[in-house]
Specification:
With about 250 residues, the protein is α/β, with parallel strands linked by helices. The chain is built from eleven helices and nine strands. Strand 1 and strand 2 form a beta hairpin.
Length: about 250
């Protein structure tokens, strides 16, 4: 359980997330994920990283129960910094990162996937940001890398999900396959990348990041500032308490 890394000797390092039951990652887990991805990229024997998950879904975001069970703002600050670190690690990893998305990919999962280089998904995968239903903001930066601008706004304001098939249509998901074929499909594209001269691919990753029109790390931290504002106002706690108690969004009052 937790974050594990395995290397196959063929240039592929696989980082696996496993936090049952839904892969809601605790604060420290985000930092460990960041370290695993960055460490893999620093290893000259690694040509590509696969990021995958065990269990029911790829990622359910931060562990809200941990946050609500902790006095003060320590857990909130740690979760926000941890998410920023993990999202940034996927982006800054010296080699391409292929993500294999199964089931649900929500909240912080969007930050990971939006910063990845290649996305493959199971045919039951859904993607979304329930942030407004949790009294928080964030990862619109990354959702905007997956869908067109007005679709991003619609999904963000309504907290609706988008399917893997829709993302394949938009061109952000490389391939949608049955869940049983997901790992093999991720490995298939990873092997194609790993077969290239890693010296060239590493330069390519740095070059592509350098021509991005949006600084994804700065823009995400800007978004997080509004999350802190909602927390200071007490609004976020109202929404998180309701979610912990009922598992449902807080009704509008």
């Amino acid at each position: 359980m937790g974050i594990t890394s395995t290397t196959d000797g063929a240039g592929i390092t696989t980082v696996t997330v496993d936090y049952p039951p839904v892969n809601a990652i605790p604060s420290q887990g985000w930092f460990e994920l960041a370290d695993a991805v960055l460490t893999a990229g620093k290893d000259p024997a690694t040509h590509v990283v696969i990021l995958r998950a065990e269990g029911r879904g790829f990622n359910a975001g931060v562990d809200i129960k941990e946050m609500q069970a902790t006095d003060g703002h320590g857990a909130l600050i740690a979760a926000n910094r941890g998410c920023a670190a993990a999202f940034g690690a996927v982006y800054d990893c010296a080699v391409p990162v292929v993500v294999a998305v199964n089931g649900f990919c929500v909240g912080g999962g969007i930050g990971l996937v939006g910063n990845a280089d290649v996305i493959v998904a199971s045919d039951d995968a859904v993607f979304g940001l329930p942030e407004v239903d949790r009294g928080a903001l964030g990862a619109a930066t990354h959702l905007a890398r997956l869908v067109p601008q007005h679709m991003m706004r619609t999904l963000y304001y309504t907290a609706q999900n988008v399917t893997a098939q829709q993302l394949e249509h938009f061109g952000s998901v490389y391939k949608v396959v049955p869940r049983a074929d997901l790992d093999a499909t991720a490995r298939e594209i990873a092997e194609k990348i790993a077969a290239k001269d890693t010296r060239v691919i590493r330069c390519a990753k740095e070059a592509i990041n350098g021509i991005d029109p949006v600084d994804v790390k700065e823009s995400y931290r800007f978004e997080q500032g509004f999350t802190f504002e909602l927390n200071l106002a007490g609004i976020a706690d109202e929404h998180r308490d309701e979610f912990v108690a009922t598992g449902k969004p807080r009704a509008n009052h």
